[in-house]
Fold this sequence. Notes:
- By secondary structure, the protein is an alpha/beta fold.
- The chain has 2 domains: 23-267, Type I PLP-dependent aspartate aminotransferase-like (Major domain) (Aspartate Aminotransferase, domain 2); 271-383, Aspartate Aminotransferase, domain 1, CATH 3.90.1150.10.
- It has helices at residues 23-29, 39-56, 70-81, 95-106, 124-133, 155-164, 213-220, 233-240, 253-269, 271-291, 318-329, 356-383, and strands at residues 12-14, 62-66, 87-92, 110-115, 139-143, 145-146, 151-152, 168-172, 191-193, 207-211, 307-311, 331-335, 344-348.
- Helix 5 (124-133) packs parallel to helix 6 and helix 10 (271-291) runs parallel beside helix 12 (356-383).
- The longest helix is centred in the last third of the chain and has 28 residues, at 356-383.
- It binds pyridoxal-5'-phosphate.
- Residues 17, 69-71, 74, 96, 143, 145, 147, 172, 174-175, 195, 204 line the site of pyridoxal-5'-phosphate.
Amino acid sequence: MKFRSFTPPLRTLLGPGPSDVHPRVREAMGRPTIGHLDPEFIRMMDEVKQMLQYGFQTQNAMTFPVSAPGSAGMEACVANLVEPGDKIVVCQNGVFGRRLRENVVRVGGRPVTVDDAWGEPVDPQKLEDCLKANSDAKVVAFVHAETSTGVCSDAETLAAIAHRYGCFVLMDAVTSLGGIPVRIDDWRIDAVYSGSQKCLSCPPGLSPVSFSPRAVERIKSRKTHVTSWFLDLTLLMGYWGDGKRVYHHTAPVNALYGLHEALLMLTEEGIEQAWARHRRNHDALREGLEAIDVSFYVKPPFRLPHLNAVTVPRGIDDARVRERLLREYDLEIGAGLGDLVGKIFRIGLMGHSSNPKNVSYCLSALSEVLMDERRGSSSNRVLA
Length: 384
Ligand SMILES: *Cc1c(COP(=O)(O)O)cnc(C)c1O
């Protein structure tokens, strides 16, 4: 058989994730594998938990990475917090809000949705109206940074409203963690999940989660078992909790070395500095895009600095542009999803990818391809 080692091309990843992995993280992942119950490994796990608490700005003891990508973190939060028959308010303004609702349905919850248009944030007034009409709702779930549209919702306000109506708060922070302020304790978020491959500069495959003490109480007093054995928090606590570690599953040892290194880099940079860096590089990108007449899809106050949704210029074939950027420039940017297919590009500046060099590279590559495409389409018209 004619198989050979796989050598990936060297790309610049400016899509919706994964983002570029820092060489320090890659190097850490190549270190020797040790046993997942080795005392040295357990010491490292404790540091991962502490550094994740810093990342999430929380004191929650139940803060750890689920051994699977962001969608598994979503499923862990929903499966543990929701019991069959529970009424759950799900805010939907993009792909990931829809996925949250689907998860609620699958664990037997009864979703009530608060719908906002794609490209708009979740409207706090609509949430309030929905909770007034559904006083028996148990949980409010929403996406902080909707990666499918590049929109940021006001997590603090949404959580405050949910608490006023006695609900638990479940938040998707997959794209926000490390890129924009996420303050789990100040905002009183009860269950949150994230992902390793967006602003944390790791490869995909891990999902940091955090549960408040009151969420843990709710989970411990469930009347029914969590249907997923793998994601059952009461079992995971035995492995990631503070007591003696007992085998649950074999943790992805080397992936966790990578997360440890990435979180170490976050503590070295400082989380506020990381947020400021994402903001600065966004500002530079925005100025450059405006200079080449590429306009933003989202209104200024709701734009994510690290996931720039821009309108595909008229007469331009978005798939061709992305294909040329990849082939000619080794540059990946994202396409629109769902309702926005063909309408937007999504330019990510997340984690290690968020730097001035990538901003200039993206601007020059995109302007050259767009100019060339415009020239091509006008000469086609002349021929036709
Ligand atoms: C990427 C993403 C997810 C899913 O994470 P995966 O690692 O792809 O499973 C969920 N929510 C949001 C907001 C995301 O951006």
